[in-house]
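Can anyone check this?
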Amino acid sequence: MSWQLVSLEARPAQSWRNGGGITRELLAWPQPADWRVRLSVADVQMSGPFSRFDGVERWFVVLEGDGVVLRSDFATHHLTADSEPFRFDGGLTMDCTLVGGPTRDFNLMAPPGLARMERLRGAAQVRGALGALLALYTHGADAQLRLGNASVTVPAYHLAWTLAPAAVLADVKGQDVLWMEVLA
């Protein structure tokens, strides 16, 4: 199985229209202009509303900083760099308040009900379905991904991704790793 590596540092920063931060798009699949799955890292520099993405499910993780408070008409969520991934409807009006200053966050956007994200620390076993888009993002330290006899080292601040040619059962070892599966 071949994994594509994408460096966060090598991706261009795109400024937000509202001036509240920047985004580095790691993957827009299958086409950048007409994506079905989008993986990105955002540097949030000021509090404000999230962009709406109707018909999209979002997964959100704080990677760095003191955290955020996300508020919708229905609930308030306090998220930190220790929190599990937070899933929500991209069509919701969502307001973000920075807790102690800027944050760096990871975003997965995909069709509703087709994606999942796990935050892993230490050693863990992960699964992926035949034909799924599989991705692993590691932040701050390298991670090891082992599938049978093959092993892939994913450097810190990199995304590794592939389309699974078969069902996958793999071992991951790392300090702060995000594992994602999106059914294609």
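Reply from J.R.: I decoded it. The mean pLDDT is 95.
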